[in-house]
């Protein structure tokens, strides 16, 4: 989830594009849905383990990667309007990976703090997804 027209909010899109081939080599499907919640609902199937990667604005360390169960956290995901009641009834299991961001603003491109750490963030997200996919 993310919006590349909103600065750091697009971090998940940039990261997933970087690691998409490696995930698909591991037989993990990657869908970059941006902000299209209807598409997200349409692609979720009964036995899926759904992992949503999104920007997180919780005053944590910029670039840190955290894994949450939906609705079990009290943090501020940038796309908190996800209809969890529908998705939780469709997927076998659901996780959120939050990437801590600094700014959400009308701007194309990431802020310097995220841009400087993009390789490390990509590795952290990839490793988190690997762990969750064998969960």
How are the secondary structure elements laid out?
Blueprint: H1 11-25, H2 37-43, E1 49-56, E2 65-68, H3 84-90, E3 93-100, H4 112-115, H5 118-133
Parallel strand pairs: 1-3
Antiparallel strand pairs: 2-3
3D architecture notes:
- The protein has 5 helices and 3 strands.
- With 135 residues, the chain is an alpha+beta fold.
- Strands 1-3-2 form a 3-stranded mixed beta sheet.
- It is globular and about 40 Å long.
- The model has no long low-confidence stretch (mean pLDDT 88).
With strands numbered from the N-terminus, the spatial order across the biggest sheet is: 1-3-2
Report how far the terminal alpha carbons are from each other.
Answer: 22 Å
Instruction: Give me the count of strands.
Output: 3
Strand content is 5-15%
The ordered string of helix (H) and strand (E) elements is: HHEEHEHH
Secondary structure category: alpha+beta
Described by the principal axes of the CA atoms, the overall outline is: globular
The value of Rg in angstroms is 14 Å
Q: Mean pLDDT, nearest integer?
A: 88
Largest sheet: 3 strands, mixed
